[in-house]
């Protein structure tokens, strides 16, 4: 048991999927895991442990934004020994070729903030995922994307500290530099994984688009993003 996670010692698996939305954690656990057991509900941030194809997996909500993700990832790594942490998140598309419902594998996560910024100060640390996980997710993702008719993209993303941002010039600069999508947690996850020598990756589904202004409803963001969950699980145990 930690400050924010009520699970007992041994109730968290070494492989953890991290959706921001705790209800997505519940949906993914009910849909993909066998014998899923609720192991955390402190602050309503639901976490479940079960098995996928015989492998133990925890799916733990991480909340919105890097300070929240940082709380859960720190405790999962330092107190429960999590080794592989894969974010399964929603994101806003930033390029015309990246469509709503496409999946993005975040090969780098730029950020202007994050809790780790306090530590790095003037240093522009480059947060990146585990290459083995990225490669395995790409392989799994290609097959899933072809079968389901969705796009799969690998590239840089932007981990923002604000959902409602007042800097259209910043988004424009990021778009000109090829950034595929915006979300709010991956950079901190990658920095923590680097610090503690753990494996991390962010697998994202495009839920809305900054250029076309399309947006999926909350129910879809909670329950219809199975492609990225399958990609994440397959990559974790490749
Ligand atoms: O759907 P999740 O995983 O929460 O991810 C995205 O959605 C939230 C904003 O609506 C932020 O947490 C952002 O990163
Ligand atoms: O942070 C986010 C997440 C989803 N969609 C966005 O536009 N931003």
Automatic annotation (TrEMBL):
GO biological process: purine nucleoside catabolic process
Catalytic residues (UniProt): 208
Keywords assigned by UniProt, alphabetized: Glycosyltransferase, Transferase
Catalytic activity entry: a purine 2'-deoxy-D-ribonucleoside + phosphate = a purine nucleobase + 2-deoxy-alpha-D-ribose 1-phosphate; uridine + phosphate = alpha-D-ribose 1-phosphate + uracil; a purine D-ribonucleoside + phosphate = a purine nucleobase + alpha-D-ribose 1-phosphate
The keyword Glycosyltransferase belongs to this UniProt entry's keyword annotation: yes
Binding partners and assembly: Homohexamer; trimer of homodimers.
GO cellular component, one term: cytosol
KW Glycosyltransferase (keyword) present: yes
Name of the protein described by the UniProt record: Purine nucleoside phosphorylase DeoD-type
Annotated positions binding a purine D-ribonucleoside: 4, 183-185, 207-208
InterPro entries recorded: DeoD-type, Nucleoside_phosphorylase_d, Nucleoside_phosphorylase_sf
Gene Ontology molecular function: purine-nucleoside phosphorylase activity; uridine phosphorylase activity
Recorded family membership: Belongs to the PNP/UDP phosphorylase family.
Stretches assigned to the Nucleoside phosphorylase domain: 16-224
Pfam families, sorted: PNP_UDP_1
Residues involved in phosphate binding: 20, 24, 43, 87-90
Entry's EC annotation: 2.4.2.1
Protein purpose: Catalyzes the reversible phosphorolytic breakdown of the N-glycosidic bond in the beta-(deoxy)ribonucleoside molecules, with the formation of the corresponding free purine bases and pentose-1-phosphate.
Classification of source organism: Bacteria, Pseudomonadati, Pseudomonadota, Alphaproteobacteria, Rhodobacterales
Enzyme class: transferase
């Amino acid at each position: 048991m930690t400050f924010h996670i009520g699970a007992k010692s041994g109730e968290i698996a070494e492989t953890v999927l991290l959706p921001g939305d705790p209800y997505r954690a519940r949906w993914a656990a009910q849909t993909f895991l066998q014998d899923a057991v609720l192991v955390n509900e402190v602050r309503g941030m639901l976490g479940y442990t079960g098995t996928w194809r015989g492998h133990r997996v925890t799916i733990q909500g991480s909340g919105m934004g890097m300070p929240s993700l940082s709380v859960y990832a720190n405790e999962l790594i330092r107190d429960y020994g999590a080794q592989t942490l894969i974010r399964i998140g929603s994101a806003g598309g930033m390029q015309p070729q990246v469509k709503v419902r496409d999946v993005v594998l975040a090969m780098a996560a730029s950020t202007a903030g994050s809790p780790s910024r306090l530590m790095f100060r003037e240093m522009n640390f480059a947060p990146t995922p585990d290459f083995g996980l990225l490669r395995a997710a790409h392989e799994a993702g290609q097959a899933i994307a072809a079968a389901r008719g969705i796009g799969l993209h690998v590239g840089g993303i932007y981990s923002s500290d604000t959902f409602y941002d007042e800097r259209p010039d910043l988004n424009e600069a990021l778009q000109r530099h090829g950034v595929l999508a915006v979300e709010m947690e991956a950079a901190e996850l990658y920095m923590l994984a680097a610090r503690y020598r753990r494996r991390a990756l962010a697998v994202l589904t495009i839920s809305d688009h900054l250029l076309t202004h399309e947006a999926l409803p909350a129910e879809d963001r909670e329950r219809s993003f199975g492609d990225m969950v399958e990609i994440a699980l397959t990559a974790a145990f490749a």
